[in-house]
Every structure is written in structure tokens, then in C-alpha cells.
Write a structure and sequence with these properties.
335 residues; mainly alpha; 16 helices
Length: 335
């Protein structure tokens, strides 16, 4: 993606990046939480002893998080600070995209500043246990997808291919984000039909193939290692049996979960909630005046995927909300 020169000349942007960076920099001194320690250890065993995840050490998470930690080890070595620095750089990326999208949506630079501060304050509040988690990395992917769709306007094939690969990797990090696949597929279909692109069906085939490709690569690696059974038992079976049995069951349980989620979010993030609700209300009341309608509906689409993952997991865990908070911050700054 080519750098936005107007963004680089924006004083509010640099102020937002400095303020958010100072807030997020405190996380450089965070230690590992229990989950990060397990992920890092499995990645270390993989690197040092050439034992794939689930072969050298057991964990029920999908392989995407171990790929991320293996990347950290390759880039920054075996240290907690290396992981936190990697996370810090990723969060700065999030701040840049959040600022720019909030500015574009509202037309006001102050909206971008507020959105960046809202998000960075929330992320810092997660502390060492809930920052650097799987859902936190998912936000990087969602914002990357938003940037590709909105900025690569004339590169249809590159957009569909890149978006599919990112959505496919998101599934490997957190399988509940498999909902991204049909949501974004529907997005590209509607967009292509409106633009009357003759190649839309071929683009969708490329998109679907790209979504599947990361998982197919993982299956191929474990098949070659003769460890398909371990991959199945430690991911699909374990998650369905263990995590599936701990979520609210029945229609009443699911409905009650929605009510509790709304209460928890409004209670714990009142300013963020009020700003986002105001932005959504204004978007519907003054729909004809909203210049960035595509951005608005893309945020809604991605937020639906984040909300579904949070709801489906059925737990009031702070980092499960990170994708929703990151996307809503864009609307909240505008609101």
C-alpha cells in the first residue's frame, strides 16, 4: 500500500500516533500471561527441536497463533521483550488505520485522534494477561482487510486474493472468524454486481480458494509429517468437546448471553458505546450526507464477524472484545 502523503502531513495524525504510542509503550514492560507463555513455549519447541505444534507440546488452539509466535522468535529472538515489541509495532499499525478510517468517515481529524486514544487506552487496560492474545491479533487482520478493500480500489484481483488469504489465516488464529469467509464473499459479490464486472464469478473463485489455502497448507504439512491425527484431535475434537460444552446452551441461554454482553460493554465502556451509537444513529438519519457509505458498511460487516466470535465463545473475557472495540473505536471517535 502506497503511503498517504496527506496523512503524513497531518499534524493531528502525528499527535495521535505520539499519544497512542506513549500509552501503548507501557505494554513493552508487560510480562507473559499464562496463554502467551504456552504459545511461546510451543513455538520455541517447534523452532529448536523441529517438532510441530501438537507433537512437541500440547495445546488446543489452532496453529495460527503458533505461527505468529514462531515469527516473533525468528525476528526478535527468545525474549518476552521481543514479543511485546512485536505486539507494540502491530498496535501502532492498528492506530494508524483506525485514525485514517475515523478521519475519512467523519471528515474531521479530531475524530481520528479520539479514535486512536480510545483504542490505545482500551488495549493498555487489558494488562499482560489479555494483551497479545489471539483476538488481539485478529484485529490486525480485520484492519488490514479494511485497508486493502478501501485503498486498493482499482486492483480487484489483488484485493480478492489478499483478502482471502488474510481471512483464511484469521480462521487459523481463531476459527470463530470463519464467518468472515461468507461475509466478505457476499461483499465482493454485491460490489461486483453493482459495478457490472464480468469477471466477478472468477474473482469469487479466487477469493474462495485463497480462504482455503492457508488451511490446506497446514493440512499438507501435517500429512507429510504423518501427524494428521494429532492435528485433528488437538484442534477440532478438543475445541468442540471442551469449549463447545462450556458455552451457553439452548435458545434461552444464547439470548441471555446477548443481553449480558450488551450490559457488560455499556457498563465497562460507556464513552466508547455512546460515541459509536451516536455515529451509527447519525449514519442512518443523515444517510444521504454520509460520503463514506462504503466504509460505514464495511465496518458494520467486520464488526458483525467480531461480535459473532465474542458471542459464540460465550465468555466474558476482555480480549474476546478486542476486534469489536477496535472497529467501534473508529465510529466512536466520529460520534
Amino acid at each position: 500500500m502506497e503511503p498517504d502523503q496527506s496523512l503524513l502531513k497531518d499534524r493531528w495524525f502525528w499527535l495521535a500516533l505520539l499519544g497512542a504510542g506513549l500509552i501503548l509503550s507501557v505494554g513493552l514492560w508487560f510480562d507473559f500471561g499464562p496463554d502467551q507463555a504456552i504459545f511461546a513455549y510451543i513455538a520455541w519447541v517447534w523452532k529448536e527441536h523441529q517438532l510441530l505444534p501438537y507433537l512437541g507440546a500440547f495445546d488446543g488452539d489452532f496453529p495460527g497463533i503458533f505461527i505468529i509466535h514462531r515469527l516473533v522468535l525468528e525476528l526478535f529472538g527468545n525474549s518476552v521483550f521481543g514479543f511485546r515489541f512485536f505486539d507494540f509495532l502491530g498496535q501502532l499499525f492498528c492506530v494508524i488505520i483506525i485514525y485514517d478510517l475515523a478521519r475519512k468517515f467523519s471528515g474531521f481529524r479530531a475524530s481520528g485522534f479520539l479514535a486512536a486514544i480510545f483504542y490505545s487506552t482500551y488495549y493498555f487496560s487489558l494488562g499482560p494477561t489479555h494483551s497479545g492474545q489471539r483476538d488481539d491479533f485478529i484485529l490486525w487482520i480485520l484492519l488490514g482487510i479494511a485497508a486493502i478493500i478501501l485503498y486498493w480500489k482499482n486492483w480487484n484481483w489483488a484485493r480478492t486474493l489478499s483478502t482471502g488469504l488474510l481471512a483464511g489465516f484469521a480462521f487459523l488464529v481463531k476459527p470463530t472468524f470463519g464467518l468472515l469467509w461468507p461475509l466478505l464473499g457476499a461483499w465482493f459479490l454485491v460490489e461486483g454486481l453493482r459495478q457490472k464486472r464480468k469477471s466477478i464469478w472468477m474473482e469469487l473463485l479466487v477469493y474462495a480458494s485463497a480462504c482455503l489455502l492457508p488451511s490446506l497448507i497446514i493440512i499438507g504439512i501435517y500429512w507429510k509429517a504423518g501427524a494428521l491425527a494429532e492435528l485433528y484431535w488437538d484442534t477440532l475434537w478438543y475445541d468442540l468437546e471442551i469449549y463447545g460444552s462450556s458455552t451457553p446452551v439452548g435458545l434461552l441461554g444464547k439470548v441471555r448471553a446477548l443481553g449480558f454482553m450488551a450490559y457488560a460493554f455499556l457498563n465497562q465502556s460507556p464513552l466508547l458505546s455512546a460515541g459509536a451509537l451516536a455515529a451509527i444513529l447519525m449514519a442512518f438519519l443523515k444517510g444521504k450526507e454520509i460520503k463514506e457509505k462504503k466504509l460505514f458498511w464495511l465496518l458494520i460487516c467486520l464488526t458483525i464477524a467480531g461480535f459473532f466470535s465474542w458471542w459464540f465463545q460465550g465468555k466474558n473475557v476482555p480480549y474476546h472484545r478486542t476486534p469489536v472495540v477496535g472497529l467501534i473505536s473508529i465510529l466512536a471517535g466520529s460520534g
